[in-house]
Amino acid sequence: MSASEQKFRSSLDNSSLGIRITDKEGDILYANQTMLDLFEFKNLEELKAVPLQDLYTTESRAAWNERHEQFLRGELAPDKVQFDIKLKNGTIRSLETSHKEVLWDGQMAYQTIYDDITDLKQKGKKQIKE
To answer: What domain range includes position 51?
Structure first.
């Protein structure tokens, strides 16, 4: 691994954002600790074993299904997507993702960045009520 690649991977490992890299088939090649923590997974193997969509709330799952159908038709996906997941303890967490193609180990792959916006959304709901 080159020095520049080591620096890049170190920045991913230490990011405050969740980061996941997948290949063209959707297989997970990499996930940082923040990504695992957002979804409350212990390790990469646990993450790989559970389709993330299975954790989506009912509303978010319906929106994902619609986006997936658009993708299969060759339509462009939105740059950013917000959705809610339900954690093992029943807590709802709101996330925002963005996607882009990246070069990973010499191959084209897809990087998804996850930002936890739960507090931001809750503050917005409080302000609307007041």
So the answer is: 3-129
